[in-house]
């Protein structure tokens, strides 16, 4: 199957609100995870024209939304935002059908091709060859047997991958410290002891704290506050998630299929 020309990579950050709640015969809940921000990045195939993305208002840089005490329904906002984005992507795909444009060399190579690029069967009088091209750019992609070409129809959904590493997250961030909204407005990096994780029952190392200090200086935490530090990590997640998913590693991700009509 042909790869979808668009993929959405997303990430959430959460407030770790302290609580005490019996959730089983021998289990106590000590935290409630409340989404505080989300971000997503739309990765387009290399041959998708920039003008087409601009026409349909498809973001070309990371989109980040941070909640607050007065707008705390972050998850609902994310769902509405992604559904609206998927609708625009669907409109783009349904309305765009650029005719194929082939160079003299591409015509020569197509005419010389004797087997289908997909099924590898030889072309005959009854198994005729056709050109497969990108309907968004007009670029030639393959020389195919006609039924194989029909199998490459773009699916009516947009794949969305949410970052979700096995140890909750893979960066140095004081999750237990950020237990209510006002903490996100702090202008200085928390002390090293505030980076203790009740999930792993571990303190961070001095080298890890130094890294957090370096990042806070690099991204001017005083200007963007502590909440902005999580935002910076989200931006990094988009790009690493794209690389990981593209190369099919074994890290666990949640895949959401966002349909459009």
UniProtKB/TrEMBL annotation:
InterPro entries, alphabetically?
A: Endonuclease_7, Endonuclease_7_sf, His-Me_finger_sf
What's the protein name?
Answer: Uncharacterized protein
Under SUPFAM superfamilies, the record lists: His-Me finger endonucleases (SSF54060)
């Amino acid at each position: 199957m042909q790869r979808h020309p668009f993929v959405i990579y997303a990430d959430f950050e959460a407030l770790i609100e302290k609580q005490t709640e019996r959730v089983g015969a021998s289990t106590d809940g000590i935290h409630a995870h409340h989404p505080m921000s989300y971000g997503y990045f739309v990765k387009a195939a290399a041959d998708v024209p920039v003008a087409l993305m601009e026409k349909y208002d498809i973001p070309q840089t990371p989109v980040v939304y941070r909640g607050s005490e007065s707008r705390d329904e972050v998850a609902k906002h994310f769902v509405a935002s992604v559904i609206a984005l998927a609708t625009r992507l669907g409109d783009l795909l349904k309305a765009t059908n650029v005719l194929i444009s082939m160079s003299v060399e591409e015509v020569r190579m197509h005419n010389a091709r004797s087997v289908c690029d997909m099924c590898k069967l030889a072309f005959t009088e009854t198994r005729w060859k056709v050109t497969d091209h990108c309907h968004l750019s007009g670029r030639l992609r393959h020389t195919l047997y006609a039924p194989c070409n029909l199998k490459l129809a773009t699916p009516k959904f947009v794949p969305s991958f949410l970052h979700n590493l096995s140890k909750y997250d893979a960066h140095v961030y004081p999750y237990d410290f950020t237990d209510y909204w006002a903490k996100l407005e702090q202008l200085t990096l928390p002390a090293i002891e505030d980076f203790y994780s009740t999930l792993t029952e571990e303190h961070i190392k001095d080298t890890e704290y130094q890294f957090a200090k370096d990042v806070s200086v690099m991204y001017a935490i005083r200007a963007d506050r502590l909440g902005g530090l999580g935002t910076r990590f989200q931006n990094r997640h988009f790009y690493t998630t794209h690389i990981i998913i593209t190369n099919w590693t074994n890290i666990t991700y949640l895949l959401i299929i966002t349909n459009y009509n």
